[in-house]
Write a structure and sequence with these properties.
The chain is of the alpha/beta class and 205 residues long. Helix content is 42%, strand content 21%. A hairpin with a 4-residue loop joins β3 (79-85) and β4. The radius of gyration is 17 Å and the shape is globular.
Length: 205
Amino acid sequence: MDVMLIGIAGGTGSGKTTLTEHLKQHFGEDVTVIHHDSYYKRQDIPFEQRCKTNYDHPDAFDTPMLIEHLRALKAGQSVEVPVYSYVEHQRTDQVEVVYPSKVVIVEGILIFQDPMLRQMLDIKIFVETDADVRILRRALRDVRDRGRTLESVINQYLSTVKPMHEQFVEPTRKYADIIVLEGGHNLVALDMIMQRIASHIAAIE
């Protein structure tokens, strides 16, 4: 199968997931989505220490495993993607079986940071949104969906998220083929990306 790999990167709360969900909903089974967050490393340390881990640093991820899985999908093989618990800050013992499809979207803040992973991607999309909007979105998401307190979200943002964004995420913007302002809310960019995906799917059918 001629699998197209699309990378969607950008800062936390930028709209990566919204853009990804729009594409998945539109193309259905022709698109498979893999999140870099699923590849956070397992941490054999107490919960209190896991809460203090820097989850926005490249070393927090098992990127070699992600690369291995993408190669398998390109070769037409299914993979077992780890299931990560944001509440426990830990990779669980569960896995999700992911099957190859015509288009695989890889989504995450740091997917353009690793040169080997970057070179595998056929299309690289960087989602850019104002920093004030991103922190508000992150705060709402983490409190509502991940059992966090507002104080812990703000402390984490100031101590690790913001400096890591400036050091590792923002510099990868230069590798993007497409820069999308406001993520999935940018309907013009969304339409252009959909046309490119549709062309690929039509060419291999």
